[in-house]
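Practice problem: Acetylornithine aminotransferase
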Amino acid sequence: MTQTPTRSDFDQYMVPNYAPQQTIPVRGEGSRLWDQQGKEYIDFAGGIAVNALGHCHPVLVDALKTQADKLWHLANIYTNEPALELARNLVERTFADKVYLCSSGGEANEAALKLARRWAHDQHGEHKSRIVSFGKSFHGRTLFTVSVGGQPKYSQGFGPVPGGIEHGEFNDLDSVRHLIDDDTCAVMVEPMQGEGGIIPADPAFLEGLRELCDAHDALLIFDEVQTGVGRTGSLFAYMQYGVTPDILTSAKALGGGFPVGAMLTTDRIAPALTLGTHGSTYGGNALASAVALAALQHIDTPEVLEGVARKHELFREHLETINRKYQVFKEIRGMGLLIGAEMRPEYEGRAKEILPLAIEEGLMALIAGPNVLRMAPSLVIPEADIAEGMARLERAIARLVGEQ
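Answer key — structure tokens:
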């Protein structure tokens, strides 16, 4: 007899590296979800910036169903039409000449870092292997990417970690000048730090990184796993900054909910990954590529991208209205529909307490560290859902304040 899963099943059967909320969503449509008891929620979390077109968007559902009747997966000794179409579309819409497809953002960043070291090795020799990243950055959970990421808590207990990695201070170009030299192969940076607190890069900072990389023949890697594919209001955030990287990584919104990742680079650098130097079993999977192609084509339109800017202002206006009443936020920041609200000193570390209160009020949100409330909703969330979601958030914050 089939047994309905419960939240306690997580504790019994799953490795305890997550602590999910008690509710279990079972159905989604647009920016709304329903749990096992039929309770409705508005989704400001977006699967952590993944569900860029909401839940079960008809464009993505149609792409998945159509491809499901044709071809699912091939080994990488073959290629397939959806993968080739996805790669071509990414090249035609960006700075890139070549694309590597994989299954996640962590995989994309792992590939980017390996490519950078391999390119530097082939061009300059073994000595050119140092990598510069930034404090509070996040680049994935593989041992390499978690070591490049600037949050030691994620690598503690997993040592020895890969060497040759230095961390500067985000938005502080002088801190990079002291670290970068002719033995540096790459600088890796998020145009807007996500897990680090929703902190946009200063334009001069990214411009300076580009100049430093050029001066030392190092590669500039933009991690756009969270900021890419429409999230900031352009297809990729680098387009808004006017700073072009040598390597760019993408995932999350790229698949609109289907696991997929991509690394983009140029003809100058791509040849370093020669036959057999790197791979991904599911990279270029036909199902994933078909869905990602549909998501990319639908998002990269004026209607969607211009709507992101309008909706950013709506989110900010609602958050400022709430804050005038309850005085809980120190700063509201972000780009497009990746928005962070940092807590005031008297609420230090309490952003995480908002999440269960919001769930009880029928709203799903996120945090970026213990002190920043994070929102990464669908890029096409209706304005009515924004208004209703904010009303629910206000009730949650009123309860937080009342529990002082």
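Discussion: The CA atoms of residues 29 and 56 lie 6 Å apart. Students who identified this feature from the tokens alone can consider the problem solved.
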